[in-house]
Amino acid sequence: MTSYSIEPFELSIPQADLDDLNRRLADTRWPDGLPGVGWSHGVPTSYLRELAQYWRETFDWRAAEAELNRFPQFVAEIDGQRMHFVHVRSEVRDAIPLVLIHGWPFEDFSEVIGPLTDPAAFGAESAQAFHVVVPTLPGFGFSGPTVRPGEADTAKSAALISRLMAGLGYGRYGAHGGDAGSFIAPELGRIAPDRVFGVHLNGPLTIPAWDEDTTGYSPEDQQKIVDLQDWSSAETSSYASIHSTRPATLAPALTDSPSGLLSWVVDVVNTYVDPATATVDDAIDRDMLLKNISILWFTATIGSSMRLYKESGVWGMPLLSSGVPTGVAVFARDSSIRGLAEKQNNVVRWTEFDHGGHFPSMETPEDLIADLREFFASLIVEPDEDLSRQN
Fold it and tell me: Which of 10, 200, 332, 386 sits 20 to 30 Å CA-CA off 227?
């Protein structure tokens, strides 16, 4: 027996929660910091203290909340699982349905929704328009924490999103994903290759098995595999090791202390933004960064979000291609292995950028928008009969 329902959602964080956040930030017991070590020991205390002060004294949550509420939001209940999502339909008649899928700890698509749904309003009269759906993965933000083991698995998230898109009346649609979304978007194609006509990925996580056959891989890919093996034992991968082994041990500290949450998330995100930038808020607008960290704080889902690493069974596993045409955008910080991506997907477009990082919709949204438009414009998209009936 299956169940499915959708209700409108509007965000309104109680003032008591904002007051509690500000009190906790003000009462932070700060550690000492070593001089002259920069980021080599993690986030410098001096940098973090200044950012926390900005969060408490300058960042305007109510403005961020109003920005979030500009977009129509909903909550679906699908077989007992809650899924929050944004759904913006274009006024353009031949708009293509497109689902945008985030990863850990977030991927803010607010800067790309307008240009994708209403290109003319953003100076792109002849560009392809899209109906945009942005689901929040189980365990994250307004979807709330997962409540049963296994609910954070990327394959289960793909099944939920497939149900969601069908429930919204989209017979055929495209999918985009980065980070964990780069596993979920292709999985949508495996679940429903007759419905998903194109998959676009940014910096897909290509994790080779320990005995990966690299015969025929380019010298560049061979070097990336060596680098990835070095990465797995490097300091920069320590967060993933903890998430995938002991997320429940770390969760209380990050759920109880906003400064602790800020430190952990900022350190990880800073590792993967444009390498040409000095700090994370040089790459990502500071208010955008704090908006997304605030969502994790107010919803108390940081611990739940980390279960994705523990419960997903796809890391380093052989994955079969769905045959769905796939476009890949690789930014300067990414280390995607093309040979492996082509084994797992029907890659028909591969674009490399000499700048940018792991969060292009937040760092360089104009590049992501352009690549999405060009990729989907290159596909022959049959009319969506279900969508025609819906209109």
Answer: 200
| Residue among 94, 93, 95, 170 at smallest CA distance from 135 | 170
Q: Are 198 and 376 in contact (CB under 8 A)?
A: yes
Specify whether the CB–CB gap between 152 and 308 falls below 8 A.
yes
Q: At 83, list the tokens.
A: 């899924």
pTM of the model: 0.94
> Tokens standing for 10?
């509007």
Q: H or E element: which one contains 192? A: none
Q: Cα separation of 353 and 361, whole Å?
A: 14
* Helix segments in the chain, DSSP class H: 15-26, 45-57, 61-68, 110-117, 154-167, 181-191, 219-232, 238-245, 247-256, 258-272, 280-283, 286-299, 302-311, 338-344, 360-363, 365-377, 385-390
Sign, CA torsion 168/198/383/126: positive
130-135/196-202 β-pairing = unpaired
Is pLDDT of 100 > 70? yes
Cβ atoms within 10 A of the Cβ of 42, count?
Answer: 16
Q: Is-contact 15 1, C-beta < 8 A? A: no
CA distance 176 to 184: 9
Once rounded to an integer, what is the mean pLDDT over residues 149-154? Answer: 94
pLDDT, tens only, 279-337: 999 999 999 999 999 999 999 999 999 999 999 977 667 788 999 999 999 999 998 99
Both structure tokens of 310? 């523990």
Q: Are 112 and 329 in contact (CB under 8 A)?
A: no
- What tens digit of pLDDT does each residue of 352-370 get? 999 999 999 999 999 999 9
**Burial class (CB within 10 angstroms; exposed 0-12, middle 13-18, buried 19+) of 153:** buried
